Hints:
Number of strands: 10
Order of helices and strands: HHEEHEEEEEEEHE
Amino acid sequence: MSRTSTSYLAALVAAVCVFFFTRAFFLGHLFVDSRPVRLDVMQGFLIGAGLAFVTAQAYARIKATKVNGWIAMFGLGVPGNGMLLRAAHAQYFPGPVTVPEEAMYWWANADAAGQPLNGEHDYIVHFPPGGLPPNNAFWSLTMGDARNRFVANPINRYSVGDRSGLVSNADGSVDIHIRKTAAHGHESNWLPSPSGNFILWLRVYEPGPAILNGTYKVPPVVKAK
Length: 225
């Protein structure tokens, strides 16, 4: 479910909850003798489910961090976190639930200016010298369309990373070119995009200390000039 659809559903559920609470406690319809028990049970179920959904949505936004347009949730798989955090994760951050020492995930659907990522524009993710994601295993940047599916492309490339043959600039920095057509002279660093909106996923396995302590910042996705 997209973030827009989830927001609409959350608003609808909240409206239903407000309606039932108003009817129950201000209009007094819950307490009339002629009210069937099954209707009380149905209202209780709807209110409970609605409150759980809205609470998980609110908690997800509290726990999520957003830096340079990238969204992450730390510590999702840590034992003892409880069902509320896991429910929040499932609604707001559709990624695997793992302990951070095993893997960390970020996703972005907007560029550095807050505009939706769209294949009609060309983008660059610039990693400064020494700024690639620190890890003890590997990392990858994966492309997904607006429904989070792989994007068909002529070179069958769906991700780039430390095992895909990225070419560094003269100063040691690395630019990843995100666009529909190949960037001339930068084919090794090209991540093909679709025609419409898309989502990027950054995965880092066995992340280094700078990621685990929160000091590492993923570079923003910037429109190419």
